Amino acid sequence: MKLQHKHIAFLAGPGFEDLEFWAVYMRLVEEGARVTVVGLKAGEVYASKSGGLSAKAEVAAADVTPDQFDAVVIPGGWAPDKIRRYEAVTSLVKGIHDQGKIVGMICHAGLVGISAKIVAGRRAAGSLGIKDDLVNAGAIWVDAPALRDGNQVWGRVVEDIPAFNRELVKALAE
Fold first, then answer.
1. How do residues 4-17 score in pLDDT, each as one tens digit?
2. Burial of 131: CB neighbours in 10 Å, binned 0-12, 13-18, 19+
3. What is the pTM for the complete model shown?
4. Which domains are seen in the chain, by residue range?
């Protein structure tokens, strides 16, 4: 178990992508990480964009600090566009990033990275749907299943979850 001493914030919001949430969440738990689901309000239950699976926020973003975590992971779906509108979310992500800790983003999660102002000058992947947003925010677009640039780990889409998980676990284990 490579991540048994890691505490990871895992962001949830309305319309998250089921597999990008649960497949990544379970992989981190499998490696021994303590994963805390962070949402807009503690106890709030969020439906996935397909309506198949839900996730319950254990804590609110406004009630935690970057010091409490070793990393943050942001799944895609429609949730990133909704949660990036909240200063508590972007402050948490920026704070974790600025402390040199890992920020994992897959698919549309880069929208949160854009709003947290952490993508300029960095290589970035993600859904083709946010390519222009990333480029306009100063990121360097790379069409790759997964990549790491410093303390940022990127995944492209659902089909690339295995590559994203490998890159994420490797970065977190260092």
1. 999 999 999 999 99
2. middle
3. 0.97
4. 7-173 (3.40.50.880)
